Each structure stands twice: as structure tokens, then as C-alpha cells.
């Protein structure tokens, strides 16, 4: 994804930007494979609007328009850290504003797939270096000296022989008239002063004094508040409602039906609009609703699990990938295992419940909220309300967690419907119960894993997967296997396992399914890597050596060496359990080793987690460490503490009193190591999650001899 | 009219005495640093101080808060310089940041009562505050750090 061509003419002549003299735009294709576009002409040719991604005004003030959300993953820090490095300015002098949703301007803006850095860093480096280069050229011209005698530092261009100096603000007007050279010199990694440094996050101060504005904190003049009672079976409809009592609650203004479209489904609800959140919540309590949700009462977790198990025994599924002849080898083998792994449904449970402010006007829609997918929302609102995209303004606030749930369309759409009906700006607040029970959920998935060992080597592996496909309710084809069937599986395995197959068994349910931090890898990783540990045991081999044998590429070998070294693998003691797993997703491979032991109270505790991440090129090691620490805790909760179960079509968990969360005392010590190399950047926000649960259950096996094949399990009972 | 003292400022507000303090602080006084997380005293995102004690404002009715001294995150320090805030910044504790007001308010009571808390003290005092991003390891380290900052400051 090296930029192929930089159009050099006119790249800064953007009209309508009053104070910004030097202004560069950049476009982020969803695939991140196309060129950087910094020119107005090139932008016009592609039918996209020139954006002012990087601006430097005549005072030398640098402003970047971050096209991605900040939901804790650190884009607010890592993006400017990249820019300041190549632009040669002090990090504190770079201002960051959030872009509004506009794919015509910015390309893909969805904060998902751990893509913020890996999807844009090459463009950002190039863009910033381009700006630095023309600023140096402008200075050299002014002084009438060779460019080679000048360099940039801290927002100044300096003439080395004389020590003369211009600050960037003095150069922007001249620089904007120049044509950038064809070859832009980027810095070497060894020259970095900011990138790869654990610099403090710039959003920390406002997140420690209450100043940061999250979606729920946004206020508009004349804004009303609303809550919605939605069909508890998610896909049922509204039969009738009685608002008499609700309307008597002081502050309640209006009660009416709201129906939100989600793909090929609709979600029915009754909205209570009031002068405060509390009044709306009180009105909701007084509301009487009759639902028609017949046909959905048969959804029960116990049946879902049973049906998955049956299908895994009776169905071959649709082939996703077959290498060699695993079926043939399995038939002829004597040393085999055939086991089923199971994972549960999960809610996202970001600490900030879903919410959105919408202001509908006949010719314009504006929304504000904790939003991961501003570009997608803009398109959806434009289509649904028949308002041109340019009149649909989508504003991102800080997100109080996202984990995928806030990369969706439903909540801004519903808020806009409500604003349209009442003719005023409105903030729609989801209660914790709404957030927990309404989905969409991370699906629970079951895996049948068969394998054969001959002469201590893997001779065949066969994986079958039964779980909901996230694409299906978006119109995905049923006759094709899930395109992410092997997500989480470390790709170099395919080079050394001769006979291996993956197949996907179609599994339909009326439960709305959705991506959840690390998507399918969050559950596939448990099935596939747990099974590799079982295969190692069957082969009579050390789990880490077994990985070393089958993950032969250089990066994996180094990763395994590092795991061995940091965990003291070779000096582990008999009364301690050590577990291993390695998974790959979003171009990043992470290996984890978990150590457990039985404490004096008789309970097994996690003493230490070592995580080694190979994410290639990276920006801020401290942010990466934080992401991995958090990923481990989120995985721990999903493996040992919480699950969403369904009974008679209803989610049984409603709030943190029965959808329990890990607490301070549950946090194991996590030590994170980052591999140093110059490979293309991979994701960091999600890949730390999938290896944890298989490494933990492997450690428990190592200590107790019990294989745990079903999540979640109770740590107090192992 | 209910008389409410928040961060040393006196307010007269016209609201249902059964309204939780959380919504009065956020929707009426416009202090949005205190967060709604669960509405059921389960997560601690709404933690404020009432007469110096940590309370969950989502279940504290206005009539109980009336006339008491309430402190929110906005009033924890004059300039983001409480030892905990300094430590939080130094160790880059927050990720999404949503729960951190509540974490800080809970930790502030701990640190006032216990000048040198152990890991067990921290577990006990902080177990009512959920962080979904998983910043617990850093919160623990930052509380130890803040205790140190506080002790150093006391020597001067």
C-alpha cells in the first residue's frame, strides 16, 4: 500500500479556508491500497471532496482533522504523534479536531477492524513529510540558498550555515504556491523522535477532571430527552400502548410509537420524550405496552447449544478451505481426538450506554454521539430520510467504550426519527438494561475439532463451525461459507499442516448478531488454539515447542522465542500451571502465556499473564500495552464471568447485577512485550483478546489435568 | 425548591425530591463529569462525595442530598492537581475515560482515610467501580503513586 502517485500540482489551493494558508488533504480508502490524494485536481477526478486534513495557519498553528473515533484506543494521541514526527513540529503544537462523517471527503472512517493506524499511517507519514518538504523549499527560496543547506525542527526551518530561521507560519503562504517534489524523503525508524515513544496521551487531563465530552454529555439549546421502551424480544412488533399515566408524569411531553429499520428487520418501540432524562425514565415506568412477539418465544440458550451440537455431529457444512485430505487421513488414523468447544453470547456493555442526539430539520439532519461509524451513518440517514448527504452532519464525541456496538446505524437512526416527530433536538438515552438486553450480541459459536497424530506429528485437522453469521441479516448469501471462518488462526500453520480443513455450518436464529472486540477471533481463537494444545498433548509435546514446529515463519519463531524468554518457560515449576496460545487477526499476531496456581484458600488464581505482540510498525508502545491489558481483562470476563443467555426469547441478563463484570480484584498482572520489526503495521486494539481464554484453560489443564471446553466457566470451581 | 450545595456552590433547584442526585447534577446543574453507567449502584461511574463519603449518585435521592456538602469530579481539585489526578496523568490510566471520574472519586476517599493503602485495601475500596477498558492494573499503580505523592507533599 505504498502511495503510487502523488499529484503535486495545486495540492494546497483549497478555497474557503480563511486562515489556513497551507492545507493538505488525504483520502483513506477502505482497502488502504490506493494512493494518497493530496491534490484538489486528483480529488475532483475521483468525485471526492478535498478535505483539509492537515492545516498550518500563518501563526504556525497546526490543526489535524482526525477522521477516526476516540473510544479509548488512543487515536487522539497516536495520529498526531505520526504527524508531528514527519512534519517536524512539537507535539503540543498540533491541535486535533474530530472529523464529521463524510466518506466523500475522508474515505472510510469506520473505527473497526483495529484499522486506525494500519489503515492510514503511510498516508499520514507521506502527507506530513510533503508539508515539511515544501516548507523547507519555501525557506530556501526566500534565502536564495540550496534546499540541502536547510532543515526543519520544532516548527521552524533553519539555514544550517547561517543559523537563520523562519517559523512555519512565515512560510505557509509561499509554500502553498510550490509544487512538491516527486520523491519525498521519509525518516528512518532510527531517526524517530516521537514515533515508537511511550508519550503521554493528550486526552488524559480532560479524562481526569470531568471535562471530556462524551455522547451523553453533549447538550444543545432547546434539547429534550427521550427513552424508548423497545420490544423485549427484539424482533416482535407493537400491538398497542396506553400512554395516559405516562403523560401525567411531570416533565413528560410526548409519547408515541417509533419503528427503527435495521437491515431487513424493524425494531418497534414506544418513545417517551421529556424535559429531563429522569422524567423520561419515570414516564417509561408508567407506560403500558402490549407487544406481539409471538414466534420468538422458542429462543432458548439450552436449545441453541443443543442444536449446534447436533449439527456438528450430523452436518459437514459448507467448505471454507481444504488442504490435502483430512477426511481420508482421519479415517485411517488410530491416534485421534474429536471434541467440541463452545463459547457464549456476549453483550458489549461499554460503560457509556448507547445514546445519540439528533436534530432533524426539513432540509438538514445533524447528529452528535459516541459514534464509531460516522460515514456509514451519514449514508444511512441520507437514504432513509431522503436528504442529500451534504446536509447530513454526523459529529463524533468521545466514546465511553465502543467494542463494535457503536459501529452501527440503529441508535442514530432511531434518534433522528424521534427528532423528526417532535420537531426539536433530542437526546435518546439507552438505559443499562436497554444496552444489555437489546443486542445485537456477539454470537456464541460451537466448534467440532477433529485431529490425528502420527509419529508425534499432526497428520490431519478438521474444524467445523456452527454459529450465527454476522452478514446474514445484512443480506449475506446463505450458500457461501462465512468469509471469516478461519479468523484468529495463525496463517503460517497452513504452510506446515498438510491435511487441514475448515467448514461452516449455516446456523440461523432471530437473535441480532454483531461484531464484538476482535469479532470472530474472540471466539474462534478459543476453539482453534485450545485444540492445538490438545494436539500437542496427544503428540506428547510441550505446547510452546509444538507451536515452534508448526509456525515456521521467522516472525512467529521470534515471537515464540520471546514468549519463552519473558515467561521463564523453561524454569517453570511443577506446582504451577502454564498455558499457551497464539492467535492472529487484523495483521497482528499475539502470543500469550498464562500462569496459574492453587492458592491457600483452595482456589486457582491467575498469577501472571505475559503477552507478546507482533504488530509490525507501531506508534506508541504505552498505548499498545494499555490495549493489551484491557483486551486481557475483557477476555477474562467473557471466559469466566459473564454470558448472555436466552429464555423464552428474552435475554436473561439485564444489568451489572446479573451480567457481572470483572472487578479490580479480578485483574491479573499483565506484562506486555512488543516485537521490534519494520513490517507493515497491524492492529493493536483487538488482537490481544483472542489468545487469552485458550491460554488460561491450557494453564488450568497443566495444573489440574482438566480440559475446559466450554465458556464461560467458574474459576472458583476448577 | 431543593437546596443543593455542590462543589461549594449553593443552588436552589426545582425538581422532584425523588430524582436521583445524578440527574440533577447532570441535567439541571450541567455538571457532566459525573456519569450514568447503570442506575443501580452497580458500576460506580456516578460516584460523588457527600459530606466526604463516596456515594452512588444514581441511587441517592435529592431529598437525601439536600443541604449536604456534595463534591463532584469538577470539584476534586482546583487545577486537576489532586495527587490522584497527577498520578492518573503520569501513568496514563484512562482509555475511554468514561468510568474514571467515578474511579477517582472512590480512590480519593480511600487515600484520605488511608495514607498508604495496600493492594488488598485498594481491592476493597475500588471493587464498586467497573472499568470495561481494563485499566485496573494502572489504577492500582496510580493509587500507590498518588499515596507517594501525598506523602512527599506532606514532608514539605
Automatic annotation (TrEMBL), chain A:
Gene3D superfamilies per the UniProt record, alphabetical: Aldehyde oxidase/xanthine dehydrogenase, a/b hammerhead, Aldehyde oxidase/xanthine dehydrogenase, molybdopterin binding domain
InterPro entries named among the record's database cross-references: Ald_Oxase/Xan_DH_a/b, AldOxase/xan_DH_MoCoBD1, AldOxase/xan_DH_MoCoBD2, AldOxase/xan_DH_Mopterin-bd_sf, N-heterocyclic_Hydroxylase, OxRdtase_Mopterin-bd_su_IorB, TAT_signal
SUPFAM superfamilies: Molybdenum cofactor-binding domain
GO molecular function term, any single one: oxidoreductase activity
Matching Pfam families: MoCoBD_1, MoCoBD_2
Domain (Aldehyde oxidase/xanthine dehydrogenase a/b hammerhead): residue spans on this chain: 209-295
Name under which the protein is recorded: Molybdopterin-dependent oxidoreductase
Organism: Mucilaginibacter agri
Automatic annotation (TrEMBL), chain B:
Keyword Iron tagged: yes
GO molecular function, one term: metal ion binding
Keywords, alphabetical: 2Fe-2S, Iron, Iron-sulfur, Metal-binding, Oxidoreductase
UniProt cross-references to InterPro entries, sorted A to Z: 2Fe-2S-bd, 2Fe-2S-bd_dom_sf, 2Fe-2S_ferredoxin-like_sf, 2Fe-2S_ferredoxin-type, 2Fe2S_fd_BS, Beta-grasp_dom_sf, Diverse_Oxidoreductases
Domain 2Fe-2S ferredoxin-type: 1-76
SUPFAM superfamilies given in the database record: 2Fe-2S ferredoxin-like (SSF54292), CO dehydrogenase ISP C-domain like (SSF47741)
Transmembrane segments annotated in the record for this chain: none
One protein family per Pfam: Fer2_2
Protein name: 2Fe-2S iron-sulfur cluster binding domain-containing protein
Organism: Mucilaginibacter agri
Amino acid at each position: 500500500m505504498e502511495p503510487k502517485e502523488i499529484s503535486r500540482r495545486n495540492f494546497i489551493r483549497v478555497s474557503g479556508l480563511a486562515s489556513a494558508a497551507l492545507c493538505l488533504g488525504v483520502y483513506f480508502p477502505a482497502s488502504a491500497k490506493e494512493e494518497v490524494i493530496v491534490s484538489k485536481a486528483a480529488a475532483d477526478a475521483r468525485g471526492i471532496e478535498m478535505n483539509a486534513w492537515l492545516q498550518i495557519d500563518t501563526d504556525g498553528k497546526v490543526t489535524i482533522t482526525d477522521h477516526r473515533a476516540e473510544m479509548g484506543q488512543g487515536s487522539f494521541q497516536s495520529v498526531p504523534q505520526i504527524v508531528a514526527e514527519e512534519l517536524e513540529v512539537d507535539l503540543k503544537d498540533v491541535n486535533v479536531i474530530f472529523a464529521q462523517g463524510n466518506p466523500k471527503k475522508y474515505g472510510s472512517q469506520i473505527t473497526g477492524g483495529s484499522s486506525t493506524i494500519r489503515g492510514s499511517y503511510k498516508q499520514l507519514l507521506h502527507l506530513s513529510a510533503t508539508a515539511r518538504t515544501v516548507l523547507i523549499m519555501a525557506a530556501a527560496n526566500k534565502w536564495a540558498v540550496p534546499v540541502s543547506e536547510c532543515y526543519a525542527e520544532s516548527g521552524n526551518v533553519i539555514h544550517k550555515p547561517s543559523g537563520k530561521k523562519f517559523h512555519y507560519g512565515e512560510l505557509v503562504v509561499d509554500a502553498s504556491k510550490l509544487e512538491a517534489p516527486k520523491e519525498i524523503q521519509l525518516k528512518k525508524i532510527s531517526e524517530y523522535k516521537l514515533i515508537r515513544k511511550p508519550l503521554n496521551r493528550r486526552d488524559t487531563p480532560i479524562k481526569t477532571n470531568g471535562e471530556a465530552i462524551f455522547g451523553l454529555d453533549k447538550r444543545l439549546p432547546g434539547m429534550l430527552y427521550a427513552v424508548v421502551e423497545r420490544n423485549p424480544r427484539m424482533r416482535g412488533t407493537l400491538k398497542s400502548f396506553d400512554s395516559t399515566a405516562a403523560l401525567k408524569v411531570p416533565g413528560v411531553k410526548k409519547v408515541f410509537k417509533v419503528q427503527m429499520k435495521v437491515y431487513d428487520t424493524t425494531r418497534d418501540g414506544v418513545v417517551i420524550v421529556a424535559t429531563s432524562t429522569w422524567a423520561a425514565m419515570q414516564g417509561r415506568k408508567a407506560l403500558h405496552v402490549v407487544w406481539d412477539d409471538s414466534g420468538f418465544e422458542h429462543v432458548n440458550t439450552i436449545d441453541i447449544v443443543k442444536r449446534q451440537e447436533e449439527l456438528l455431529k450430523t452436518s459437514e457444512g459448507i467448505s471454507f478451505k481444504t488442504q490435502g485430505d483430512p477426511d481420508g487421513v482421519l479415517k485411517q488414523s488410530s491416534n485421534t481426538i474429536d471434541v467440541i468447544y463452545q463459547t457464549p453470547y456476549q453483550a458489549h456493555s461499554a460503560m457509556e450506554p448507547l445514546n445519540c442526539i439528533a436534530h432533524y430539520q426539513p432540509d438538514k439532519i445533524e447528529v452528535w454521539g459516541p459514534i464509531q461509524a460516522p460515514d456509514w451513518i451519514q449514508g444511512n440517514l441520507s437514504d432513509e430520510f431522503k436528504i442529500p448527504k451534504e446536509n447530513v452532519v454526523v459529529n463524533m464525541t468521545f466514546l465511553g467504550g465502543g467494542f463494535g456496538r457503536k459501529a452501527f446505524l440503529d441508535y442514530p437512526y432511531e434518534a433522528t426519527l424521534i427528532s423528526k416527530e417532535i420537531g426539536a433536538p433530542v437526546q435518546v438515552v439507552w438505559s443499562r438494561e436497554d444496552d444489555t438486553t437489546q443486542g445485537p450480541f456477539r454470537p456464541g459459536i460451537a466448534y467440532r475439532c477433529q485431529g490425528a497424530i502420527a509419529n508425534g506429528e499432526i497428520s490431519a485437522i478438521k474444524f467445523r463451525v456452527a454459529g450465527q453469521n454476522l452478514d446474514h441479516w445484512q443480506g449475506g448469501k446463505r450458500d457461501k461459507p462465512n468469509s471469516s471462518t478461519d479468523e484468529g488462526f495463525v496463517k503460517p500453520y497452513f504452510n506446515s499442516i498438510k491435511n487441514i480443513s475448515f467448514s461452516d455450518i449455516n446456523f440461523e436464529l432471530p437473535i441480532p448478531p454483531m461484531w464484538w472486540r476482535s469479532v470472530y477471533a474472540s471466539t474462534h481463537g478459543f476453539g482453534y488454539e485450545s485444540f492445538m494444545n490438545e494436539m500437542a498433548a496427544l503428540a506428547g509435546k510441550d505446547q510452546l515447542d509444538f507451536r515452534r514446529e508448526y509456525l515456521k515463519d521467522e516472525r512467529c519463531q521470534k515471537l515464540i522465542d520471546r514468549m519463552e524468554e519473558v515467561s521463564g518457560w523453561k524454569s517453570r515449576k511443577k506446582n504451577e500451571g502454564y498455558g499457551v496460545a497464539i492467535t492472529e487477526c487484523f495483521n497482528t499476531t499475539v502470543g500469550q502465556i498464562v500462569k496459574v496456581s492453587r492458592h491457600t484458600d483452595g482456589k486457582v488464581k491467575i498469577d501472571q499473564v505475559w503477552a507478546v505482540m507482533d504488530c509490525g510498525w507501531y506508534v506508541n508502545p504505552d498505548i499498545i500495552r494499555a490495549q493489551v491489558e484491557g483486551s486481557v481483562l475483557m477476555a477474562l470476563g467473557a471466559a469466566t464471568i459473564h454470558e448472555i443467555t436466552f429464555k423464552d426469547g428474552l435475554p436473561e441478563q439485564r444489568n451489572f447485577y446479573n451480567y457481572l463484570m470483572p472487578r479490580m480484584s479480578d485483574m491479573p498482572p499483565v506484562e506486555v512485550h512488543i516485537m521490534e520489526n519494520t513490517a507493515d503495521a497491524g492492529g493493536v486494539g483487538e488482537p490481544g483478546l483472542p489468545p487469552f481464554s485458550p491460554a488460561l484453560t491450557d494453564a488450568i489443564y497443566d495444573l489440574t489435568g482438566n480440559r475446559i471446553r466450554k465458556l464461560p466457566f467458574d474459576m472458583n470451581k476448577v | 425548591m431543593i437546596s443543593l450545595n455542590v462543589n461549594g456552590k449553593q443552588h436552589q433547584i426545582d425538581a422532584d425530591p425523588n430524582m436521583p442526585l445524578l440527574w440533577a447534577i447532570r441535567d439541571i446543574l450541567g455538571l457532566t463529569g459525573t456519569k450514568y453507567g447503570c442506575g443501580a449502584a452497580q458500576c460506580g461511574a456516578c460516584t460523588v462525595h457527600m459530606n466526604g463519603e463516596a456515594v452512588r449518585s444514581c441511587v441517592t435521592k435529592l431529598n437525601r442530598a439536600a443541604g449536604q456538602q456534595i463534591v463532584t469530579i469538577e470539584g476534586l481539585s482546583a487545577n486537576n492537581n489532586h495527587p490522584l489526578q497527577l498520578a492518573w496523568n503520569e501513568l496514563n490510566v484512562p482509555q475511554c475515560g468514561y468510568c474514571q471520574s467515578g474511579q477517582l472519586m472512590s480512590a480519593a476517599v480511600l487515600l484520605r482515610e488511608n495514607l498508604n493503602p495496600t493492594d488488598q485495601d485498594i481491592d476493597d475500596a475500588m471493587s464498586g467501580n467497573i472499568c470495561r477498558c481494563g485499566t485496573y492494573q494502572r489504577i492500582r499503580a496510580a493509587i500507590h503513586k498518588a499515596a507517594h505523592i501525598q506523602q512527599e507533599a506532606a514532608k514539605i
